[in-house]
Design goal:
Length: 181
């Protein structure tokens, strides 16, 4: 996989992101480790419940910050009722907490993709949740999702990340209700 050429960052933006980066990484580590500690038993039970239908995890190749390829962790959300419930509740991506701990992803950022026509997305780590996910989930056309990702890349700060994290459970419930209808 070839990484796209990234646009140069203006000096003030580079300095602001460097200062923000350590606080964001600290939030990512503390948040991901706390969630893994809290959810380790339920995640292990879910993995065991998925074993009869095959391997419980899917590893997908994605582009990370600066275009570095990595493999995301996800529950296999296809097949039996357990997998369907995971998908319905938007929980299939919880194993990506491992990617956050490893520094390949962030709790908040653009959705990880295998390739992109928008290299500015690669200026930040991809996230488990992001601005477009809490704005309207999958109801938005692709062009609007890209605009929200670009807005996040250009103007994210720790307060924005905290607001997105606070809105994520509600957005996941909204997605669940929409799929049940």
């Amino acid at each position: 996989m070839h990484a796209p050429t990234l646009p140069p960052l203006p000096a003030p933006l580079r300095q602001a992101w460097a200062e923000h980066g350590s606080a964001k990484r600290s939030l990512d580590l503390v948040g991901a480790l706390a969630l893994l500690a809290l959810l380790s038993l339920p995640l292990a039970l879910l993995a065991l419940a998925l074993v009869p239908s095959g391997h419980p995890f899917v590893r997908e190749l994605r582009l990370g910050r600066a275009g570095r390829p990595f493999r995301t962790w996800r529950f296999r959300a296809e097949g039996d009722r357990v997998a369907a419930a995971l998908d319905l509740c938007a929980l299939a991506g919880l194993p990506q907490l491992l990617n956050v701990v490893r520094g390949e992803m962030s709790l908040v950022g653009p959705c990880p993709q295998a390739r992109t026509e928008h290299p500015e997305r690669l200026l930040v780590r991809p996230g488990m949740t992001g601005l477009w996910q809490v704005s309207a989930r999958s109801d938005l056309p692709w062009e609007e999702m890209s605009l929200l990702d670009r807005h996040y890349v250009e103007s994210h700060w720790l307060g924005m990340d905290l607001a997105i994290l606070a809105q994520t459970p509600r957005a996941a419930l909204r997605l669940r209700r929409g799929r049940q209808a």
